[in-house]
Amino acid sequence: MRNHYDVVIVGGGVQGLSLAYNLARSGLLRVAVLEKSYIGSGASGRNGEMIRSAFASLEWIRLFDHSIQIWETLSDELDFNVMFTRCGYLVLATKADEMKAYGTYAKLQEEFGLKTFLLDRDEVVKRIPALNPEMVAGGIYQPDGGFARHDAVVWAYARAARRLSVEIFPHTEVIGIRVKSGSITGVNTTKGDIETQTVVNAAGAHAGWVAQMAGLTLPTQTCRLEMLATEPLKPFLSMALASPYSLSYMHQSTRGEFIGGAEIENLPASNSLRSSRRAVQDMAQKFTLLFPGLCGARLMRQWAGVVGMAADMSPLLGPVDGVEGFILDCGWVYGFMGAPAGGKLMAELILTGETPKHIRPFNLNRFKTGKLIVDPSLTVSTGSIEKNEKNRR
Ligand SMILES: Cc1cc2nc3c(=O)[nH]c(=O)nc-3n(C[C@H](O)[C@H](O)[C@H](O)COP(=O)(O)OP(=O)(O)OC[C@H]3O[C@@H](n4cnc5c(N)ncnc54)[C@H](O)[C@@H]3O)c2cc1C
Predict the structure, then answer these.
(1) Do 291 and 230 reside in the same domain of the chain?
(2) Per-residue pLDDT tens for 116-152?
(3) Is the pTM of this model over 0.90?
(4) Which string of b and e fits 168-191 if b means at least 16 CB within 10 Å?
(5) Is any atom of ligand 1 closer than 6 Å to the C-beta of 336?
(6) Pair 129, 242 in one domain
(7) Is 308 touching ligand 1 by the criterion CB < 6 Å?
(8) To test ligand 1's pocket by mutation, which of 169, 328, 334, 380 has the most ligand atoms within 8 angstroms of CB?
């Protein structure tokens, strides 16, 4: 490890690695990624792998649509097959009032220029006959959405970054951030100290603690999510599917495994990576209600992951007031799908000092100005948003 880098990125998840790759691609030579465990050990190696840009707020649509355009050619760009499967993404409505809201979202998406379709109940059931028709009121379908392999994406970015001479240090924890006269001067790690003028906080669920090292308090809290994979089954789900009503999301892998996750309403905040019986019961109930044919399917794996959520569920991106050189790239709840755009735009910000318009609204300052970005189409409980907001106050 050198004793000086131009940029030090804290966190070897998909966001930190995408940023490192994009910085190096634009010619910045001395970039270090410090990861306290193994590469991709955080949420980036544990997520549901789903990708869309059909959201319900202009800010989210603009950012994630930029990402979807990069996903299209990402395997070629990184020279590594990330197994992006453009099979389409359906946001399912179960209740009539959800459909009413979806009409508004679809209109906004159309105005932006997204290719999405508002489907009625019959059209959804025709496309996915395995769905329980009682759980279907309609949905928004985005043909350009889909899923990719999360471990492949992490390794693709890591390898591409290394080829461009980024230095990645697994098992190297940042334990201190040095600030002098309001500016970053370096970091302390378990493997020695580094001088730098720029530190990026891409520490996922741990971003709050990393910010504290620089004397900042972030409006974030950890949220624990669980997932499962079944034995391989005959193809029955031809697209990625999110059900905000049941707070669940799922797809069927190319090997046939049904892979899905769900959020339990009002679960206390926790950092634990232990999977639980309560979650597997909740997921089994939700998935068999949506797909009765899953009854009796054997469970192969179950796992947990944590994300660091901002109070409004939107990412925290960009510089902060009061600590020159400390840059946030955290608070990502949908940070897997957002990584191609996140890394590219954050690199632009660092290299030019100008904040690209896609990420400008996501600055931490929104919590001072009150311009919070709450996207109502996320598959997260509104209870969580309200609880976060209450904790923040
Ligand atoms: C179960 C689950 C399902 C999900 N499903 C989806 C989905 O379908 N689609 C989607 O887009 N998103 C999904 N997400 C969210 C997505 O995984 C995250 O938003 C994304 O991975 C965030 O990436 P990151 O690089 O910011 O964080 P992480 O991948 O968590 O990486 C942060 C890294 O920082 C390291 N770190 C922390 N502190 C320090 C320190 N002091 N020093 C050095 N290193 C440190 C950690 O070890 C970690 O590896 C899901 C998340 C979970 C948990």
Answers:
(1) yes
(2) 999 999 999 999 999 999 999 999 999 999 999 999 9
(3) yes
(4) bbeebebeebbbeeeebebbebee
(5) yes
(6) yes
(7) no
(8) 334
